[in-house]
Sequence to fold (129 residues):
Amino acid sequence: MRIVYDDAMQETMAAAVGEFMDALNVEEIVRYEWGTDRVQMHLLKKKLGAYLEYYRMSIGNTVTHAYGIGNNCQYPVYYHPEGVDEIQQCGYININSGMYGEGFVSCEDYNGKRIGAAYEVRTRGVKKK
Fold:
């Protein structure tokens, strides 16, 4: 199986992430940690990955960190076309943890340009930026 770069599904990826973020029940991914409630980004990634399966997409395991900081994670997003022996990388998703228990989610194309909205995930809800 080969991986190809194809940006045809980038808008679908951004729209799917937007739908997920709009419907996200934040209480399901908040845990008490270090004296306060914090958004658990690994749980958000897991739930988002399950949501993207409906669109034949998956979040890759290869992570890169912006500026060498471990809480700034960028993952590739793959589209799995039906009947083809390849997977198509359609962009990236940024899943970042903030210092005060909040998180941030956004999508990017291959050139680092944001696609769609960015989202701030706090313990009491999601704010679209």
In short: Strands lie at 2-5, 30-33, 36-39, 57-59, 64-65, 72-79, 86-97, 103-108, 114-122, 125-128.
